[in-house]
Specification:
Blueprint (H helix, E strand, L loop, with lengths): L4 E2 L13 H10 L4 E4 L8 H11 L2 E12 L2 E8 L6 H29 L4 H9 L6 H10 L6 H9 L12 E2 H10 L3 E4 L9 H14 L3 E5 L5 H13 L3 E4 L34
Bound molecules: manganese (II) ion (MN) (3 copies).
Length: 280
């Protein structure tokens, strides 16, 4: 059996439900041997996760999930095996967090108007225990106020790109993020490539740009892909000089349809992103 990897997960340091320690313990219970904690634009959960990984005897891959701009689109880029003490990375993350906070304030103001809520920003902050709550916390407010039927409806009606409470954020550019991750000793991996609604052609353009920027890989083994999506991503991982990664994007035990480490195999003919990290 090859070592079991899950290279994409979230803790309460961003929008996850479990503390870094709780997340690592759950990963160990699920048989994960190498877990990457990849919170959105923060490295804050990594020290606790590293200690917890030592306690339960699994390896923690220090990571981060950066929001980046590719043209006018917002994408997510994972930095895996980054040095959390790297000054350039810490500066980038601090800038991203400041942008997140401004975005959250504006989002709150817009939701107050558009959905007839009050003090959305402050209430989302309280829920998230953060000054920069992400969209899931605003979705929760909408749900609790009976303004939407479910989470997806909150995004479709108010929060997603093109809707009234969506706020464009000045994230860093894809190229810059790749450069900073690389300089921090990490590997830049495109997160959930099937989730951006790109045509086949656009996706190949994106991967070309990622390769040219010095990117390392793309996530291929993720839960919930359709047969066609899986075939497309597998082909991309073979056609481009990019490694294949595996990650659940676990946020919460309430997502009963996915679990840490419960991932499809990497497609044949692809190179694993962890190759050369761990001797066979
Ligand atoms: Mn998230
Ligand atoms: Mn993401
Ligand atoms: Mn994620």
């Amino acid at each position: 059996m090859p070592p079991r990897y899950d290279l994409h997960s979230h803790s309460t340091a961003s929008d996850g439900a479990l503390s870094p320690r709780g997340l690592v313990r759950r990963a160990a219970e699920q048989g994960v041997e190498h877990l990457a904690l990849t919170d959105h634009d923060t490295l804050a959960g990594l020290p606790e996760a590293r200690d917890a990984a030592g306690e339960v005897g699994i390896s923690l891959v220090p990571g981060v999930e950066l929001s980046v701009l590719w043209g006018s689109r917002e994408l997510h880029l994972l930095g895996l095996w980054v040095n959390p003490d790297d000054a350039g990375l810490r500066e980038l993350v601090a800038n991203q967090m400041a942008a997140r906070e401004r975005r959250a304030r504006t989002m709150g103001e817009r939701l107050d108007k558009a959905a007839g809520l009050a003090n959305s920003y402050d209430r989302a902050c309280a829920l998230a225990d953060s000054a920069a709550p992400g969209r899931p916390f605003f979705a929760r407010l909408l749900l609790d106020a009976g303004k939407v039927r479910n989470f997806q409806h909150a995004f479709d009606r108010f929060l997603k790109q093109g809707r009234s409470a969506f706020v464009k954020t000045p994230w860093c550019e894809l190229d810059e993020a790749v450069r900073v991750i690389d300089a921090a000793g990490g590997r830049a991996v495109l997160a959930h490539p099937a989730r951006y609604g790109l045509t086949r052609r656009k996706l190949r353009q994106l991967l070309t740009d990622l390769v040219n920027a010095g990117g390392h890989g793309l996530e291929v083994a993720t839960p919930g892909l359709s047969h066609d999506q899986r075939a497309l991503l597998s082909a991309c991982a073979r056609d481009f000089p990019l490694a294949a990664s595996a990650g659940s994007d676990f946020h919460s035990p309430e997502q009963h349809w996915l679990e840490l480490g419960r991932l499809p195999e990497l497609p044949t003919g692809t190179r694993a992103v962890w190759e050369a990290e761990v001797p066979a």
